[in-house]
What we know:
The protein has one domain (about 5-290). It is about 35% helix and about 20% strand. It has helices spanning about 5-35, 40-50, 60-70, 140-145, 160, 200-205, 215-220, 230-235, 240-250, 260-265, 270-275; strands at about 75-80, 90-100, 105-120, 125, 130, 135-140, 150-155, 210-215, 230, 240, 285-290. Helix 1 runs antiparallel to helix 9 (about 240-250). It is globular, with a radius of gyration of 19 Å.
Amino acid sequence: MDRWLTSPLKALLHRPCVTTASLIGARLENRIETGQEISETTLTDEFVDSFRPQSRFSMWKPVADAIRDEFRFYLNVDVNKSTIEPRTGADIGLVIRRSVYAEVQSTAEYAVLIQCKKVDQGGGVEDFFHTVGGSGERQSALMLSITPASFYFLYVPPSLLSGYADQETMAFVIPANNCHVPIWNLGAMPSESIEGRHLTLDEIAAGGSILVIPALAVEAQKNQSKAAKLNDILPNAFPFWYWFSEMLIPGFVGDQSRRVIEVAQNTRRRDLEREGLDFGVRYSITVGLGSG
């Protein structure tokens, strides 16, 4: 179907995802070494800045130039911050717009909602099963009430992850106990049969500093406390670079309904207000990929 979405093109999309995760992982490790704390809000700000074209921390502009020069496709990113603090909304609304006119026309617009969490130096997430305000509902349930295309981003110090792989850090080719995710290596390990640039083992390790977990998997865990441990979360996790390039962009995940797209873009309609939903996002990111 999407024959234009080749392995070399996806390999370019891997790069900013891996680099961003690597920088966040380095920040976490530095704070552990100095005994200082860093909030998940600060890390989310840095994650969003990596998308912002005008930011000096932007990881996407060089990739956009490479995609234009090598494939004659155009990648553009728009970032907006909400002026209203969302009380029950996700941290990030991520919208994908594809408009490719090649051998077969490929056009789509869809969105996902994202809640961000941070793993502490002890390997725990204090508020992973977060209950929102006076509603008594968990964050995962509130997100899923809007769309099943809801996810958690987990910021993880790389040093905590190395203990879960027997040979190749973050690859899990030989999985640790209760962790069966060899798919993390698909499309990224060197192979004569796969075109394009492959991730090195160091990049795979660094890229694991942002993990993606489906909100449905979070909601399914009926824990008595709000806290969670990393080793309990890993079986349901994908690294951000894999999720973005191999699942989100190809359209394996996402919701194309106008209602969800408007929530992700903070352009809520009146019917949402009539339903009593005060649902928005702190940041809205729109990624466009097209042939002109």
